């Protein structure tokens, strides 16, 4: 299958959600003493509503496994937020009502099936609030395999242009990066063997999302001398896919050893890296399980690499 239609709809839907997220973010006060979660609430519900609506119009039979659910949004305490969400969504879909928006968000309550989409309407909440990296991540999964992945990264640095990159991949067709400022689409590839300059590794900014000490030790053991580049969200997959880093390490935090990763936090990024020539597995080398559950119950930790160094990394981790 060529997935031409799926790719096109995923791109337009992600770009609409991107617009909403950026509008919301413009209105976040620069210095907030205590981080107010309401901007992210407004943006991630709004983003999920827009994307679910766009998918349902063209693929009414496809379930969507999204991160958000509108139950809480229907409570009286959230009335003000719902009104705000409606205003933002109406900038994109002028006649949208609050009731419709609730329904669109709840379309994201789908189940893992033979064919379904998975969506993180805003991945990297903390980065979003910090005016840093975040991603809108959408992927189509069929027969347990990610077939299409689109990752919108509105703050992603692009040489000689305004920030903003859209990473796109279709199984068997390679990966590209669209420079959103110009619309230019360029094929991307992972760091090649002899590119010492880009032999760096990426990890979360949030210390509690990984095992920083162990990650640093593993990177060192495989010959990466530069310190970790820290970045929020699935944008880290974009960095590996576009050859800006050779490795992304996400080892379980000693504080949350039983944490299980969500499919929407990895599906879009994983296909982009694989189609750019890289490799993705858990810390034991097991493929990520996108076929069974919204949580990857049988996987621990995530290793993303340019492929070349993957077995060496697994060797260090499991010796
Ligand atoms: P990042 O921006 O890469 O740090 O990751 C953001 C994602 O981390 C969110 O989408 C959460 O689903 C996920 N997350 C939350 N708690 C943990 C944890 N204890 N370990 C790993 N990931 C987590
Ligand atoms: Mg997320
Ligand atoms: Na999220």
Description:
The structure is a single chain. This protein is of the alpha+beta class. It has nine helices and twelve strands. α2 packs across α3. The mean pLDDT is 96. Bound molecules: adenosine monophosphate, magnesium ion and sodium ion. Magnesium ion is lined by residues 120, 123, 265.
Order of helices and strands: HHEHHEHEEEEEEHEHEHEEH
Percent helix, as a range, is: 25-40%
Rg measurement, Å: 19 Å
Please report the distance between the alpha carbons of the first and last residues: 40 Å
Strand order of the largest sheet: 1-2-3-4-5-6-7
Structure keywords:
five-stranded mixed beta sheet, 33% helix, seven-stranded mixed beta sheet, alpha+beta, 3'(2'),5'-bisphosphate nucleotidase activity, globular, 9 helices, DPNP, binds magnesium ion, 319 residues, magnesium, binds sodium ion, binds adenosine monophosphate, 19% strand
């Amino acid at each position: 299958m060529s997935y031409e239609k799926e790719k096109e709809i995923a791109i337009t839907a992600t770009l609409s959600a991107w617009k909403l997220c950026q509008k919301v973010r413009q209105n976040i006060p620069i210095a907030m003493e205590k981080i107010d979660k309401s901007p992210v609430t407004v943006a991630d519900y709004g983003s999920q509503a827009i994307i679910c609506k766009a998918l349902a119009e063209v693929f009414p039979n496809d379930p969507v496994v999204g991160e958000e659910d509108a139950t809480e949004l229907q409570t009286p305490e959230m009335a003000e937020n719902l009104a705000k969400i409606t205003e933002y969504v109406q900038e994109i879909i002028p006649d949208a009502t609050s009731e419709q928006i609730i329904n669109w968000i709840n379309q994201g309550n789908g189940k893992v099936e033979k064919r379904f989409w998975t969506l993180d309407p805003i991945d990297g909440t903390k980065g979003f609030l910090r005016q840093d990296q975040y991603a809108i991540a959408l992927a189509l999964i069929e027969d347990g395999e990610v077939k299409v992945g689109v990752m919108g990264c509105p703050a992603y640095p692009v040489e000689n242009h305004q920030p903003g990159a859209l990473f796109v991949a279709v199984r068997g067709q390679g990966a590209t990066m669209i420079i959103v400022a110009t619309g230019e689409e360029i094929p991307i590839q992972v760091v090649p063997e002899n590119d010492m300059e880009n032999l760096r590794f990426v990890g979360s900014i949030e210390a509690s999302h990984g095992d920083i000490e162990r990650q640093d030790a593993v990177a060192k053991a495989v010959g990466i001398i530069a310190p970790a580049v820290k970045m929020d969200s699935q944008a880290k997959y974009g960095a590996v896919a576009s050859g800006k880093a050779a490795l992304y390490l996400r080892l379980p935090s000693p504080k949350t050893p039983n944490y299980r990763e969500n499919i929407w936090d990895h599906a879009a990024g994983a296909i982009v890296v694989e189609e750019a020539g890289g490799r993705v597995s858990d810390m034991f080398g097991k493929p990520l399980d996108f076929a069974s559950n919204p949580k990857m119950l049988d996987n621990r930790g995530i290793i993303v690499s340019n492929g070349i160094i993957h077995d060496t990394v697994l060797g260090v981790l499991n010796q």
